[in-house]
Amino acid sequence: MTSATPPATLPPVNHGPRVVAAGKFLQLADGTPHFVRGVSYGPFKPNSRGEPFPEDDRLAADLLHIAALGFNTVRLYEPPTAVVLREVEALGLRLIVGIPWSEHVDFLASRSLRREIEAQVAAISARLGNHACITAFLVGNEIEKTLVRWMKPQRVRAFIEKLILIARRNAPQTLISYATYPSTGYLVPRNADFIAVNVYLESAAAFSACLAQWQNLAGNQPLIITEFGLDVAAHGPERQVEVMRWQHNCLLGGGCAGGVWFAYTDEWHRGGKEITDWQFGLVDRERKERPACALQRELSLTWQPPATPPRISVVVCTRNGAATLGPCLDSLVALRYPDFEILLIDDGSRPQIAEIAKGYPQVRYQFQEHAGLSAARNHGARIATGSIIAYTDDDCIAHPDWLLHLSHAFADDTVAAAGGPNIPPPPRNRIEHVVAAAPGAPAHVLLNDTEAEHLPGCNLAIRKDALDLIGGFRVEFKTAGDDVDVCWRLRETGRRLLFVPGAMVWHHRRFTIRAYLTQQFGYGCAEALLMKEHPERFGFLGGARWRGGIYGDQHPADHPVEGSIFHGPLGLGAFQVIYSSSSFRWWEWFTGLLWLALLLLALICQQPWLALGLLGFACGSAWQVSARNAASASIRGVPDRLLLWWLSFLQPVVREWARLRGMLKLGARPSRHPMLPDIMPPTRPHKITLSLGTLCFWSETGITRDAWLQELRKVLRSAHIIFREDDGWRWFDIEAWPWSEISRAFLSVTEFHADGRCLTRVKLLLRIRRSLGWNLLLWLIVTAILMAAGLHMLLVLGLVAVVAIVLLVPLGAWIIRREMCKLARSAATSAGLIEMR
Predict the structure, then answer these.
(1) What pTM value is reported for the model?
(2) How would DSSP label each residue in 536-568?
(3) For residues 336-360, b (16+ Cβ closer than 10 Å) or e, as one string?
(4) Are residues 285 and 317 located together in one domain of the fold?
């Protein structure tokens, strides 16, 4: 190793505009692309002023060296001091600032602690929010996996989202997020400005697969890997160089917005102690460079095209799309790709389109008599000179590296088509904002993290020979549905479709409510055409049966419920994510035409209360959809929420009505033997869980939940109690009498405090089979019907039953809790734990 020899001075750089999110990437506010090339710094042993940073001279030298290595961002785990800010601003560096708080304890159990955390986030973000050198605040970092399972993912996510709102209120110009990690891959805040994840993997294949998974969890947001690195003590400095090289390439090729290498130096202070076991630094504790520093100086911030880039023909089909065509063509002529052409196919538009095309000499303009979208796309394919045809719409704006990312997907000969996300641009007014969040937007369908079943036509690249093989687009699809049909037929040839997260286009949603509903009507008509051609792909009610998971109307991590996350036994799995499942919920039966038909039937049968109930279910179902989308799109305010609810109410009605009309007109019918999806909903728990309270046990010597669980197993066996343990999907550790209608369960977690001391919490749970509740509800309905028929004696029986329930249920719960406390305390005593009362 050689000593670090940074230049004596670096000229100060003006930070200029702030860093902002732009779809899947970051840029400066003036539009300049910005890739985060970061390194972590600290935390350190307190200096002479008690600050968690080195002394001023060492700090200045370190930051100067970081800038000389080519980094543009430094991640801090403590708020920067005035000295840090001064040095960073002088060197032109930017900061990602972590806001520390008590993440290692059950913070949701204490209202005062939650308020303290909220005040901490508010104070730090307000104090530092006016510094343009701060790219982002992270309002938390890696809440421990068993602790999240204990507190419940939805509650933890809701608190993180609240902290993000607090930080954004106090620092509105700064990006805000939370740094998660693969062990809590389901913990993705919906209102973050970007997704931040810490990943440590030592294989390029595993790292690329992990990035693909996280890109899908990120949805339309940028993905930044906020920690990755390699321990030199375990693997050696040459291996660190190798890993750094492929990790950097994976970040660029995977469409990430940047990454942070952990760490600058081996010097690391945590939990009141110097950490000496690990050596992740680019320099050692004495600041001697490792070979990875030389590589850092050479790394490029731009992704390069393939060695032999294929020629790509970009085809834009338009019909009277003058309002958005100009920006679309502006983006296409600015594409950063060495070999492409632009074809504009005018499907019988007014002369205005031809006039616009004259302003772009790089664009080949072709006019055809109005024949529909599919005919226009076929026309473009016939005259294309490229081996790959990239289709986009006249209301899309392509990212400068759109073709660059698509081109790499075709390095594999088995790939017939590829496409990426289509993201609504920043709305110009509240109507656009709400319409962009409404359901029914063009969505991709994925069979896994990389392979697609369907790619929307606004961002779809196809090999020309593959398109010729299936005979091109079917001309009967005039306005929509052509992309679905062609994707299904391409897959039937045995070739694959790839989803490429970095191949992004901005795609304007409809600008007015009327245009949005017209679009949904057109989608319904197209579904009837698709049913005519592919009856086996539709269910008995007319809905498409996708083999994969649909992305678009909801955030992929919207439902972190029991049974959808594999935590690993006792919550100890290293990689925990929400597994692919159907997005359908039972209440969605009451959206669309079905509830209207039932409502009319109830009115015909003179059952006004039943009709009112159906109407209430329909309104509630629409509210569920709108609330889910409002959270992802950050829609607030009563008027906007009500408008989104109304669109969520109307959208399935309009779309299903159009589909039904088309089915009747075309004679389309779904198959009696439909194709079942490859991805089925996960098994939901058959029981509901109620808490009977929590016990707390303390240990001065580091005894954890493992010892308590071991003793609890012995106690249960000695009492001849049948029990089962968590299979990795459940929110309990041990369940007693698991096959009974009412069972008891225990859930535990250990908090690690200073000097090796531990606090183990044990939650007492009562689990009740759902069928028991449904049977009770059915009994009440039958009783109400019989009473309505004049059998009033049942009223007395009903009152007696209610009184019995009111008296006996609390008594039974008290008895069960007493028995469970006895078992838990016996196990704690045997394990050497002391109960805290």
Answers:
(1) 0.89
(2) GGB-TTS-B--SSEEESSS-TTS---TTSB---
(3) ebeebbbbbbbbebeeebeebbeeb
(4) no
Half-sphere exposure in the Cβ direction for 530 (13 Å, CA): 27
* Identity of residue 231: D
| Spatial CB neighbours of 298, under 8 Å, sequence gap ≥ 6 | none
Is the pLDDT confidence value at 170 over 70? yes
Range of 624's domain?
582-654
Domains held by the chain: number? 4
User: In this structure, are residues 314 and 341 in contact, taking their beta carbons and an 8 Å threshold?
Assistant: yes
pLDDT, tens digit (0-9, with 9 covering 90-100), for 587-622: 555 567 777 777 788 888 888 877 887 788 788 888
Q: Mean pLDDT, to the nearest integer, of 308-332?
A: 96
Whether 350 and 413 share a structural domain: yes
Residues in the chain: 837
CB 171 within 8 A of CB 125: yes
Write down which residue in 511, 529, 551 finishes a domain: 551
Q: What band does 553 get if pLDDT is binned at 50, 70 and 90? A: very low
Question: Do 30 and 126 have their domain in common?
Answer: yes
Q: Same structural domain for residues 287 and 324?
A: no
In a domain, 279, yes or no: yes
Per-residue pLDDT tens digits for 789-825: 555 555 566 666 666 666 777 888 899 999 999 999 9
pLDDT exceeds 50 at position 680? no
Question: To which residue do tokens 């994840």 refer?
Answer: 197
Helix (H) / strand (E) containing 210:
helix 204-218
